[in-house]
Every structure is written in structure tokens, then in C-alpha cells.
């Protein structure tokens, strides 16, 4: 009662002041991995810390403090310098490793309870700073250096049979969860494959339709090209045939004119040819066709072969008047005029 009253009346002690007082008095603050506060015999109550010595059945209340270190100082003063030093030395022993915790569980016939829902991997185990807290229901079972050691505290709390059952249930839940995840993944993969197959089919149809349209266009182009070639060939054939017919008609006329001139009394063939207007008065197309297609200079001039120069000159002058580019609008008038002029020069030079 006197210690409690003194603690309440004194000015609140800081953690550093409590540690310094313990050192000055030759005491050791006893740390504990089993306590949430980090000190043996110290528990948090509301916003303050209680110092207790003994077990739950026969605990001795030592007082309240503002910090865990101050409450630990109350505990160290109660047990004395020698006992507090021994307890502190025991608490500072090498912490239990994960492998050691698993081995201890196996030796004691206990089962560590796994959990995929916990960040630590074990049911009831959570991380606080660099340490791990073990809690089952509303019971705080202590702090540990590793998650496995904290899981061992829970397994010890439950016992061999209950920890094994809990672990089996957890494994069942994990297996069910894994199966659900696998099923979901299989469904997702199947759906993705189905979508990919549908997309590929659609793309193939589009490409096939595109290829069909392109082939149709090419076929139309080929048909148009062949039609144009056939039309051009027919036009060339018709033009050649027309030239041949005109040439044959002109040759027949020349022969008839020669025969008629020979049959006229007192008229020579050249004179008759000179007086005959047919050679120069034919349609302009026929004249141009004869001028451009004939290789005979007399025929170009429209006179019988070896006609006198006067007759050739008279025919040339008439043809020149009709074929001159300034007077004739026919597209081949210039070429025909040049051919007739060339023929006349050849006759004069003969």
C-alpha cells in the first residue's frame, strides 16, 4: 500500500528515468517475450501499466506506473537486486529459432496451426514491431522472437488434440481455397481461350473476305484488260482491213482509168488521167489514206504510173490545196501533205 501511494503521489517517471534509477539502485529490469509490454510482471491497464508479482492464483499487486519501464522498476525493487539480475539474464538468453520451435512442437506432440489469412502464416500470430504476438480468442499468450515460437505458444494453449484438429481444419480450408482458386483459374483460362478462338475465327473470316474481295477485284481488272486488248485488236484489224479495201479499190480505179483512157480516140492515158477529177476529188479520208499507205509516188499523187510532169503537177496542186494543214482539219492532214509533197519532188527529180 505504501509503494502504491508513493507511485501515485510522485511526478510521472519517464522510461529513461526508470532505467537510470534501476541502474543506480543495482537492479535489472526483467524483460519477457511472454508479456505484451515487454517486461515480466507488467501488464497494460487502460492508459497506465500495472506491476504484479506471482501467478493469477496468488499474485501480488505492486502498483501502477506511467510507463512500462517504471512498472518494471517496481517489479525489480520487489524481487531485489540478485533475483532481478538472474531473471534478466535468463530472459536475455538466445531466443528460440523457427526450427527449434517446430522441433519442440513435434517433441511435445503439438501441431502448429497454419493460416493463409495471416501475414505471419499462422493462426493467432501477428507481428508487432520486430516481435510476434500470440493471441487465442481473448487470451494474450505472449510475445516471441519468431512466428513459429508464437504459434507454439498457441499450440501449447490448445493442447495436442485441439491443435491437431485446428491444423487439419486449416489444411482443409487451405485445400478448399486452393481448389477454388484452381477452378477459378481454369475457368479464366478456358474463357480466355474461348475468347481468343472467337477472335481468331473472326479475324480469319475477315481475312478470307478481304482475300475474296481482292481476288474479285483482280479478276475484274484482268477481264477489263483482256476486253480492252481484244477491242484494240479488233480495231486494228478493222483499220488494216479498211486500208486494204481502200488500196484495192484505188488500184482497181487506176486500172479502169488507164483502160478508159486507152480506149478514148485521140487521148493518151496521161492526158486522160490529168483530165479525170476522181483522183483529187475523192473524200479527204480516202485521199489521206492513199497518200499515207501507198509506196508508189504516182499513186500518192493520184495519177497513173509514169504520167507526165504536167499531170503530176496539176494533181499535186489540187491535193495540196485540200491537204494543207491550214485548210484541212483532219488529224493526219499534215502527214498526208508531206507524203504528197515528197512524191511530187520525187517525180520532178526523176
UniProtKB/TrEMBL annotation:
User: Superkingdom, according to UniProt?
Assistant: Eukaryota
Q: In which residue ranges is the amino acid composition biased (Basic and acidic residues)?
A: 171-196, 204-262
Which CDD domains did the record assign?
Answer: DnaJ
For this record, the Gene Ontology CC terms, alphabetical, are: endoplasmic reticulum membrane
Matches recorded under PANTHER family: AT29763P-RELATED (PTHR43908)
Which Gene Ontology biological process is one annotated for this entry?
cellular response to misfolded protein
Annotated source species: Emiliania huxleyi (Coccolithophore)
The record's region (Disordered) falls at: 171-274
Q: What is this protein called?
A: J domain-containing protein
Amino acid at each position: 500500500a505504501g509503494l502504491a501511494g508513493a507511485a501515485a503521489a510522485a511526478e510521472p517517471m519517464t522510461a529513461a528515468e526508470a532505467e537510470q534509477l534501476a541502474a543506480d539502485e543495482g537492479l535489472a529490469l526483467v524483460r519477457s517475450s511472454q508479456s505484451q509490454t515487454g517486461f515480466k510482471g507488467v501488464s497494460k491497464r487502460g492508459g497506465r501499466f500495472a506491476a504484479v508479482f506471482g501467478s493469477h492464483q496468488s499474485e501480488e499487486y505492486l502498483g501502477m506506473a506511467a510507463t512500462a519501464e517504471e512498472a518494471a522498476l517496481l517489479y525489480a525493487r520487489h524481487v531485489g537486486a540478485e533475483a532481478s539480475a538472474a531473471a534478466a539474464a535468463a530472459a536475455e538468453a538466445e531466443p528460440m529459432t523457427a526450427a527449434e520451435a517446430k522441433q519442440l512442437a513435434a517433441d511435445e506432440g503439438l501441431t502448429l496451426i497454419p493460416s493463409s489469412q495471416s501475414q505471419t502464416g499462422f493462426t493467432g500470430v501477428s507481428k508487432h514491431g520486430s516481435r510476434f504476438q500470440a493471441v487465442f480468442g481473448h487470451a494474450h499468450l505472449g510475445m516471441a522472437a519468431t512466428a513459429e515460437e508464437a504459434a507454439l505458444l498457441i499450440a501449447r494453449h490448445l493442447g495436442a488434440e485441439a491443435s491437431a484438429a485446428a491444423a487439419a481444419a486449416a489444411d482443409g480450408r487451405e485445400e478448399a481455397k486452393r481448389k477454388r482458386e484452381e477452378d477459378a483459374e481454369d475457368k479464366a483460362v478456358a474463357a480466355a481461350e474461348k475468347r481468343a478462338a472467337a477472335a481468331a475465327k473472326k479475324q480469319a473470316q475477315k481475312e478470307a473476305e478481304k482475300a475474296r474481295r481482292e481476288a474479285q477485284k483482280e479478276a475484274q481488272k484482268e477481264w477489263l484488260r483482256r476486253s480492252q486488248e481484244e477491242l484494240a485488236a479488233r480495231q486494228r484489224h478493222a483499220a488494216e482491213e479498211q486500208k486494204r479495201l481502200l488500196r484495192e479499190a484505188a488500184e482497181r480505179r487506176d486500172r479502169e482509168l488507164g483502160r478508159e483512157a486507152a480506149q478514148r480516140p485521140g487521148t493518151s492515158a496521161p492526158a486522160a488521167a490529168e483530165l479525170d477529177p476522181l483522183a483529187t476529188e475523192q473524200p479527204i479520208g480516202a485521199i489521206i489514206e492513199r497518200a499515207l499507205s501507198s509506196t508508189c509516188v504516182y499513186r500518192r499523187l493520184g495519177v497513173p504510173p509514169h504520167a507526165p510532169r504536167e499531170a503530176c503537177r496539176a494533181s499535186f496542186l489540187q491535193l495540196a490545196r485540200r491537204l494543207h494543214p491550214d485548210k484541212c482539219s483532219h488529224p493526219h492532214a499534215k502527214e498526208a501533205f508531206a507524203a504528197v509533197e515528197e512524191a511530187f519532188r520525187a517525180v520532178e527529180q526523176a
